[in-house]
Write a structure and sequence with these properties.
Chains: A mainly alpha (419), B mainly alpha (372), C alpha/beta (514)
Strand content of chain B: under 5%
Radius of gyration of chain C: 25 Å
Distance between the termini of chain B: 28 Å
Strand order of the largest sheet of chain B: 1-2
Oligomer: heterotrimer
Number of helices of chain B: 14
Largest sheet of chain C: 6 strands, mixed
Low-confidence stretches of chain C: 508-514
Order of helices and strands of chain B: HHHHHHEEEEHHHHHHHH
Largest interface: B-C, 46 and 68 residues
Distance between the termini of chain C: 43 Å
Number of helices of chain C: 17
Chain lengths: 419, 372, 514
């Protein structure tokens, strides 16, 4: 992402033709191959948690806020506005959910979280679209403002509420969960057999279909909905054109300011949903709950090349690392081996694509992580929490240049000023 | 950039002042809406603010904020967003504290210990920023995201390292690095009426500010930085190597960031522990924005921030959540950037008209570029 | 000023149009009458106000005074949407296309056919294919615009306009980026459109093209209409004089000052883009002290890449550059400047100036390592200011002071300042890329004068230009660049603008070029 600021590093590398999107069957094969590798690592290390349904379920729960934040980022950037303030808008969402959730239930919490997130989005829109403020600065300002506001309101409204405190809300009941009937026990038995690949698949499926929160399902629908709206409707086309060539859009009568407003407010809405989900699934609002997920969401968006499908994959990946650190040190230790293998595979792929330097770097890192795995019994618990961030950095560092960002992303747009 | 006329001075002040007034109004509204009295709040803050101890603490806070702001401003001048000052200063403070508190260092003469500590801090800060710089230059990774990631990684890595370096702090659950013995400390200045002392390293902050001003306005390097920030294409055509500038700029920014924790470390806490101040990096961003990356402006902004933060401490007791100040600060940042943008647009239009008038109205449009 | 036609046959009538911007009057009392079903050309030099006028006709700007009449009805446009509804379509000089979207998406944007809530892709595809075949545009709706060539992109722009039912097309400098065949194809398309009853407004400054394709010509100078003529009644030279308002300044060189001493040598320079296209193909030349080498070519044939390679902004895939015998191919831009290379960039706003910095700070730009701007590692503010003032005086830069921001000056004065800056410090070679583009006539003459004088003092000059008179008048040696190769070398003393133009567009088979 070179949204605002310098374009260094992007121009000089021989601009790689962005990979033509692969047919669906290739993606399926890649997923299966990946699963096979993970399964292999599980068998070798004995860390059952790598593919247990519990982990998958936790990963899903962790992935949703990230995916929603990423979706928020996607909507904004597709219209040409960089939204660094997602983190702040998510905080507003968590507070809103806490406030309405403990009083009137999780659905009220969701609505309220959305409303507050949208307000944050509106603020960003006014600053960047109407006043032409630099997008990053406005985002940073919102990130400074929101947590303070949330804590203020928290002290104001939660201190005296039963079960609440200065920095947290009273408990919120969880949203209803559903399962696909009949599968649960069958998959469970399969999973417990610990057979190579089959059991892992069973674990994966069970985690995805049993005890899934309704909110998760809503999130998935939103992802699909985004794909449909942005790529198959006139509204979506106009919105995307604002991010690709706003002057062209203006010349064809599209009200660029209007669509940017929609997009950025929408971006706040999604961040609010993500925050609400986070609060509801943690059963309360807590100060500092978001923990940087707004930024990880942005990373997922970049990882997904600004498309909902890729975004979901990225969010899944980050959610998985997030879930793993809660499962215990064996699991995390095994992650090291997995990471090592992934890096070595990447090294091979890049080598075949004739990127010698990156291939070498990936190979070295792969070997380093592998050596770390074999040379130690455990990962120090303090370092475990950094896993999602390290993975994000690795992804950005080794894959950043095959991406295609909306062409006018981050540029300040003023009507009538043909570029 | 233009000559200092009454008009330019007025324009320069209009934005921050306007923002402050606006923010104060917004907060007054919020207070009333939540059942507090703005007048009482202000009263409580003024009372607290006048106390010598609050003034000393404000000055000390301002010192930290100023250093952080200068670090951020170096990046801002080049359109680089070094959001990672936070992680950089914490890593630097931790490792410098470990260095300064090591048992073998106790016998080294004072001045050398202090200089060594400061050097270690600067090198660590620069190195941590360097990671983001290399990622940007070699792989085009946005420094915004990478520095944010590095901040988080610094938190966890810091916890791990602290455990390795730490000794328990007497009488509490806290752990910290081994306290620095007297030879490696820097004495503070006395302030009449208070037992608290002003950080000795406030001098360092002033020095950094002066050097910053000098480099930016009087050296070739500073010119290159400003040019790259203003127009990358013009800078390239003029011979600037943008990659090298990004690297230098980030390293410099990280190095200054490393200094942020030094006044506190060497002047009062003498050890890096779990409650070492956090979040100074983000405050630096706010102060740099408010002070418009200008050495004097940032100093004033840092002082303002310091006073607001410390005077606010008494608010909780008065029944007003002290976060109202945090809200005010957030609103100030937002409104000040809007205000600066409005002033800038006005100034550009005004200058164009002025030149047009002084040279006589032309029939032909000021042909800008290809065709008009 | 309008031609004598019975009322009601005019597709468009502009009467008394005036538009003012802060400090500048862009259009004053413009009157144009366009007959339906014709190609009506609007000519004028850069900065005359043509583009502003077209923006007004297309609804992107509102006139301060005056009226617009379309097909006999008075109209008042508030936005391009209104103009589109009135049947006016604009094909911009700088294409307004989104690279990452498909042709279909670009064409239907803003006027999408709907199927319920969604976009009716099938209907869109069908309509596009229909228009494409009936007007001979040959465009595939599902290709990404990024993959299209220049001529194809222009056809997409035309398709965009036809898709919306435009009956009046405005084409803004359409041939600026086309090679000869593409120009012919375009004119063929225009004839077909005319046959279907459409009216075309053709804005250009390429007088020979205008004379060959237009039915009526209106000349605009300094914001007003000067006259309306038929092509049969004027020659190109007369048109040019109408455009400029006086006898054209003729940039003539006196005696030859070319020496034997080679200053700048390019050998086999080749530059390749990411997708394997050669934008520069084995380019070689030598410029001697006191010599001006002019390179003529239609924009987009490799000139920009050549200049960037010579200045060190771009690395060649093959070939070498030598300055006074020394190989500088690996040298950085800064080192090249220090070695005596001066550079007047093509785009003064993006490459030549720091718009928001003061003039004296702009004096330092490009010369950050040498006096008078610099003393050691420090800036010499006094020296820079004094020298900036000197440049302002010597090069007649009209500005109230050197503390004013560069953006406040007019284009001509900005360019004069840049020329003054670059000529300072005794450079050995000057790379001048379109040095008088977008500059008023007075400044143009002054700049030519300065280059001539420097040439007499043994400066070597590489001049890239699309202004034929400039090239012919200023060059000692003249080469034509086409698709990245130097295809012909002509004698500036005997070549005519027509011959040069033909060579530039590659149509020079029939003419013998000396």
């Amino acid at each position: 992402m070179t949204a605002t600021g310098l374009s260094v590093g992007v121009e000089t590398a021989p601009a790689v033709r962005p990979a033509r999107r692969l047919a669906a069957r290739w993606y399926l094969l890649i997923v299966l191959a990946g699963l096979a590798v993970v399964s292999l690592v599980r068998v070798i290390t004995g860390a059952e948690d790598l593919t247990s349904s519990g982990t998958v379920g936790a990963a899903l729960t962790a992935a949703v806020p990230i995916a929603m934040a990423g979706l928020g980022g996607l909507w904004a950037e597709r219209a040409g506005v960089v939204n660094i303030g997602l983190e702040g808008m998510m905080v507003l969402g968590t507070w809103g959910a806490g406030f309405a959730g403990y009083q009137w239930g999780p659905w009220a919490g969701l609505v309220f979280g959305v409303v507050l997130g949208a307000l944050g989005g509106l603020l960003h829109a006014i600053a960047t679209v109407t006043f032409g403020v630099d997008h990053i600065i406005s985002g940073v300002a919102i990130n400074l403002l929101a947590p303070g506001a949330a804590l203020f309101l928290s002290k104001q409204y939660f201190s005296d509420a039963p079960g609440g405190g200065q920095k947290q809300s009273p408990p919120i009941t969880d949203a209803p969960r559903v399962s696909i009937p009949g599968l649960s026990s069958a998959l469970d038995t399969l999973e417990r057999k610990h057979w190579f690949l089959v059991s892992d698949l069973a674990g994966l499926l069970r985690g995805l279909t049993v005890n899934v929160s309704l909110l998760t399902i809503i999130a998935v629908l939103l992802l699909v909905g985004t794909l449909l709206v942005l790529w198959r409707t006139p509204f979506g086309l106009r919105l995307r054109s604002c991010g690709e060539a706003p002057v062209a859009a203006e010349s064809l009568g599209v009200n660029v300011y209007k669509y940017k407003y929609y997009a950025v407010i929408g971006s706040g809405v999604f961040a609010g949903i993500g925050g609400a989900f986070l609060a509801i699934s943690s059963s309360q609002f807590r100060d500092g709950q978001t923990g940087g997920r707004g930024f990880i969401g942005l990373a997922a968006m970049i990882f997904g090349n600004w498309r909902p499908g890729g975004l979901a994959a990225g969010a899944g990946l980050f959610g998985y690392t997030d879930a793993m650190q809660l499962r215990g040190s064996d699991a995390v230790h095994a992650l090291l081996l997995l990471l090592a293998i992934a890096l070595l595979v990447l090294a091979v792929v890049q080598f075949l694509a004739r990127h010698r330097v990156i291939s070498a770097v990936a190979a070295v890192l792969g070997v380093a992580f592998g050596w770390w795995y074999f040379a130690s019994d455990q990962l120090p618990p303090e370092l475990v929490g950094s896993a999602p961030y390290v993975v994000t950095l690795l992804v950005l560092a080794l894959a950043a240049q095959r991406l295609r960002m909306p062409k006018a992303d981050g540029k300040i747009y003023r009507r009538g000023e043909a570029v | 950039m233009s000559r200092l006329t009454p008009r330019t001075v007025l324009l320069g002040l209009a934005a921050p002042l306007g923002a402050l007034v606006f923010a104060a109004l917004v907060c007054a509204v919020i207070l009333i809406a939540t059942g507090h009295s703005p007048a009482d709040t202000v009263q409580a803050m003024i009372t607290s603010g006048k106390r010598p101890r609050t003034l000393v603490n404000s000055l000390n806070s301002a010192t930290n904020y100023y250093l952080s702001a200068v670090a951020v401003a170096i990046g801002f001048r080049m359109n680089l967003f070094n959001i990672g000052v936070d992680g950089q200063y914490r890593m630097a403070a931790l490792l410098a504290a470990g260095f300064a508190g090591a048992t073998w260092i106790d016998s080294v003469p004072g001045p050398i210990r202090i200089i060594g500590t400061i050097m270690v801090a600067m090198i660590v800060g620069a190195a941590w920023a360097g990671i983001a710089a290399i990622l940007k230059v070699a792989r085009g990774v946005s420094e915004v995201i990478s520095t944010i990631m590095l901040n988080a990684i610094a938190t966890y890595l810091g916890q791990y390292l602290l455990l390795k370096l730490a000794v328990p702090v007497a009488g509490s659950n806290n752990i910290g690095t081994r306290p620095i013995t007297e030879g490696g400390q820097i004495p503070g200045f006395d302030w009449p009426g208070s037992t608290s002392k002003v950080y000795g390293l406030v001098i360092l902050a002033v020095l950094v500010g002066v050097v910053y001003w000098f480099v930016l306005t009087r050296t070739r390097f500073g010119f290159d930085i400003k040019a790259t920030g203003m127009s990358e294409s013009a800078a390239v055509a003029s011979g600037v190597s943008v990659k090298r500038m990004v690297l230098y700029s980030m390293l410099l920014s990280g190095g200054i960031a490393g200094l942020v924790g030094m006044p506190q470390l060497l002047g009062s806490s003498h050890s890096y522990s779990l409650d070492f101040p956090a979040g100074l990096g983000f405050i630096g961003i706010a102060v740099a924005l408010l002070g418009r990356n200008h050495p004097a402006g940032m100093a004033l902004a840092a002082l303002l921030w310091g006073v607001l933060d410390n005077a606010a401490n008494s608010l909780d007791v008065a029944g007003v959540p002290k976060e109202i100040v945090a809200i005010m600060q957030g609103v100030i940042v937002l409104s000040v950037v809007v205000a600066y943008e409005l002033v800038r647009r006005y100034r550009v239009r005004y200058e164009q008209q002025k030149v047009g008038r002084e040279l006589g109205m032309t029939r032909v449009p000021a042909a800008a570029g290809v065709g008009a | 000023m309008s031609t004598d036609d019975p009322p009601g046959t005019h597709a468009v009538e502009l009467a008394g149009i005036t538009k003012r911007f802060p400090g500048v009057i862009a259009n004053a009392d413009v009157n144009i009458a366009v007959r339906a079903g014709t190609v009506h050309a609007i000519v004028g030099e850069n900065g005359a106000g043509k583009s502003t006028l077209m923006k007004i006709l297309y609804g992107m700007q509102r006139p301060d005074e005056g009226t617009i009449t379309v097909d006999g009805t008075r109209v008042d446009f508030h936005s391009p949407a209104d103009a589109i509804r009135a049947g006016i379509g604009m094909v911009h000089q700088h294409f307004m296309l989104a690279d990452n979207l498909t042709v279909l998406e670009n064409v239907v944007l803003g006027s999408e056919p709907r199927a319920g809530v969604g976009l009716d892709f099938r209907a869109a595809r069908k309509k596009i294919r229909e228009i494409s075949t009936s007007y001979g545009l040959d465009v595939d709706p599902d290709r990404l615009v990024d993959d299209l060539g220049v001529g194809e992109r222009q056809r997409v722009e035309i398709l965009k306009v036809l898709y919306r039912g435009a009956r009046i097309l405005i084409l803004d400098e359409p041939t600026a980026v086309l090679v000869p065949q593409e120009v012919d194809e375009l004119f063929g398309n225009l004839r077909e459109l005319k046959a279907e009853g459409l009216t075309i407004l053709f804005i250009s400054h390429k007088l020979d093209e205008v004379l060959s394709v237009a039915d009526d010509i209106t000349v605009i100078r300094r914001g007003t209409t000067v006259s309306s003529v038929r092509p049969g009644e004027v020659t190109a030279r007369q048109l040019a004089e109408l455009m400029v308002g006086s006898a054209l300044p003729v940039p003539e060189l006196r005696e030859s000052t070319v020496t034997d001493e080679p200053v700048l040598q390019a050998d086999g320079l080749t530059v390749v883009t990411a997708d394997g296209r050669k934008v520069l193909d084995d380019v070689s030349f030598t410029i001697h002290a006191g010599e001006v080498l002019g390179i003529a070519g239609v924009e987009g044939n490799g000139q920009a890449e050549l200049v960037e390679t010579l200045m060190g902004i771009r690395a060649p895939a093959a070939g070498t550059v030598r300055l006074k015998g020394e190989d500088i191919t690996r040298l950085s831009t800064r080192r090249r400047r220090e070695a005596g290379m001066a550079y007047i960039p093509e785009d003064r706003h993006r490459q030549g100036l720091l718009l928001e910095a003061s003039l004296w700070e702009n004096r330092v730009l490009g010369h950050q390592t040498r006096p008078p701007s610099v003393r050691g590692p420090l800036l010499d503010r006094r020296g820079a200011k004094a020298d900036a003032q000197r440049i302002v005086d010597e090069y007649d830069v009209r500005t109230p002071s050197i503390d004013v921001a560069a953006t406040a000056l007019s284009g001509g004065n900005q360019q004069k300042f840049i020329v003054g800056r670059e000529m300072t410090g005794n450079p050995v070679v000057l790379i001048a890329s379109h040095p008088t583009r977008g500059v008023d006539v007075g400044a143009q003459a002054a700049i030519w004068d300065h280059i001539r004088r420097a040439r007499a003092e043994h400066l070597a000059v590489l001049m890239i230009s699309a202004d034929l008179d400039e090239l012919i008048g200023m060059s000692d040696t003249l080469a034509v660049i086409l698709r990245g190769r130097l295809v012909s070398w002509v004698d500036p003393k005997s070549v005519t603008p027509q011959e040069l133009g033909s060579a530039m567009t590659g149509a020079g088979d029939s003419e013998e070029v000396a």
